[in-house]
Design a protein that fits this description.
Number of strands: 0
Helix content: over 70%
Order of helices and strands: HHHHHHHHHHHHHHH
Distance between the termini: 59 Å
Largest sheet: none
CATH architecture of the largest domain: Up-down Bundle
């Protein structure tokens, strides 16, 4: 074997082969449950991510607690760390794909609607989430963090629903996609600013402005250098006789941007991965990049991430002390998007019904919210109880969004 136990102190006895076999068993269990959960979810006309989250809840301490099974128990701590590393790579790949799939032309088509719906759809959920947490006597920084989580959205579910109904290429569809672009960008920047200020430990205004300048400089340099060189370099490497050279180059670029985001820009690594996606979205090789990275991401790393979210959450924490908080935050999460995005869309020129449809379509939470929550529990900003509440919000809104969206289009013929 290429590794040695001396590099990993505190492992149980059993040798390198035993350690590797434990990791292999843990990975095969996670991937198998993830894919099975995703398959069943799709068969029930729900998004695959919902099934993967539920698979994680079943495997985790909420139900089976599989890392405490007899074959894995002795190395459970190490296996948890390793699965976490796989999950973190999954997060980076997921955010890269999110950047890669942005349709800026659709944002331009939706124009005023996207701007108003996207910005108001971030502001209102943040106010409702922060206010609710403050009502329960949580510190301001924790309340703001939860508000940021509620600001994130996931329109992949709603976009798929609109495609099935033949309504995606409409004013509502374009407004939904445009709002989602703005939502993603602002929420990711917002969480990066939050972590920069949080890690600065409440520094002076001058220090915070310096941090903001450092972040702005990183964004400008990353985008300019990326647009000038990365896309061309990808084309050159694709023509070279290197086995899977394009995939290797893209993977290295994602890791480099993620590393530079935190080290140089004092921003979250996911921001760097997201920017890498934005840069390569302009490449003529975009579709090939998307196919290759998606195979790597959704075949291994992303399922591990979604299952790991369930593994980290323990629904037994949802006792009477947080049940009311879960209900209020879920209502705030739903109404924040419906009223915020819907109100912005109405001011932007859509009809009342179209505005309601767009607001409902922005209601579901998903990848970005889970990523932010995962970052928060890793940094000690939120506790397991709040993390379990966030997972509950994601599951509930994910279930409600496609059902509610279909209802708002009732009696309308396809476009």
């Amino acid at each position: 074997m290429l590794y040695a136990n001396r590099w990993i102190p505190g492992l149980a006895a059993g040798g390198e082969e035993g350690l590797f076999l434990d990791l292999a068993l843990a990975l095969l269990t996670v991937i198998l449950f993830a894919k099975l959960g995703g398959y069943l979810s799709v068969r029930l006309r729900q998004p695959a991510v919902l099934g993967e989250l539920l698979a994680g809840l079943i495997l985790g301490p909420s139900v089976l607690n599989f890392l405490q099974w007899e074959p894995l128990r002795e190395n459970a701590a190490f296996l948890g760390v390793e699965l976490g590393h796989f999950a973190e790579i999954g997060v980076l790949l997921l955010m890269f794909i999110a950047g890669l799939e942005l349709h800026l032309s659709d944002l331009m088509k939706s124009g005023k609607v996207a701007f108003l719906a996207g910005s108001m759809g971030i502001l209102l959920p943040m106010i409702l989430g922060t206010g609710t947490m403050l009502m329960f006597d949580y510190p301001l920084y924790k309340a703001l963090f939860v508000g940021l989580i509620l600001s994130a959205t996931s329109v992949s579910i709603s976009a798929q629903t609109l495609m099935e109904m033949g309504r995606l290429r409409t004013r509502v569809g374009f407004g939904l996609l445009g709002s989602a672009v703005l939502d993603d960008v602002l929420v990711i920047l917002g969480i990066s600013i939050f972590f920069a200020v949080y890690e600065a430990g409440g520094s002076s205004l001058v220090d915070i402005l310096l941090l903001a300048g450092r972040m702005a400089a990183y964004l400008a340099i990353a985008l300019l250098l990326g647009l000038a060189f990365i896309s061309r370099l990808a084309e050159k490497i694709e023509r070279m006789p290197i086995s899977r050279g394009l995939l290797a180059f893209v993977f290295v670029t994602i890791l480099l941007y993620a590393w530079a985001a935190e080290t140089l820009g004092h921003m979250a690594p996911i921001t760097g991965a997201f920017i890498a996606g934005l840069v390569l979205a302009r490449s003529p090789l975009k579709r090939k990049i998307e196919e290759q990275v998606s195979s790597l991401a959704y075949g291994l790393f992303v399922p591990v991430f979604f299952v790991s979210v369930g593994l980290a959450a323990d629904i037994r924490h949802l006792d009477g002390s947080v049940t009311l908080l879960l209900v209020l935050l879920t209502v705030g999460a739903a109404l924040g998007k419906i009223l915020g995005c819907g109100g912005g869309a109405y001011l932007g020129g859509l009809t009342r019904r179209e505005s309601l449809q767009l607001g409902v379509g922005m209601m579901s939470r998903g990848e970005v919210g889970l990523i932010i929550a995962n970052q928060g529990i890793a940094a000690g900003i939120i506790q397991p109880q709040i993390f379990a509440v966030v997972v509950g919000i994601v599951i509930i809104t994910t279930l409600l969004a496609p059902i509610s969206l279909r209802w708002t289009f009732k009696n309308e013929s396809p476009a």
